[in-house]
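Weekly modeling sync, notes
Attendees: S.R. (lead), two postdocs, one rotation student

Agenda item 3: backlog of single-chain predictions. S.R. asked that every request posted to the team notebook include the full sequence so nobody has to chase files. The rotation student volunteered to paste the first one in as an example of the format we agreed on. Action items at the bottom.

Example entry:
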Amino acid sequence: MKDLAPHSIELESEKVQFLKDMAKKYDLADIGKAVRCLVNYARENQDKLDDIFGEVRCLDC
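Predicted structure, as returned to the notebook:
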């Protein structure tokens, strides 16, 4: 069994909506699964970590 633990994170409503949209589009159980997909992608693509985390993006400024 997976070692899942709930975690609370703060997200702007646009980001929550994006996760909901992706969960629906890709038939994911919920937005938590969408976040886990993103984390797994980052973990599996170590060569893209600078692209993912190195640049500060402010889409909501």
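Discussion: group reviewed the output briefly. Residues 21 and 27 are 10 Å apart (CA to CA).
Action items: rotation student to repeat for the remaining queue; S.R. to check formatting next week.
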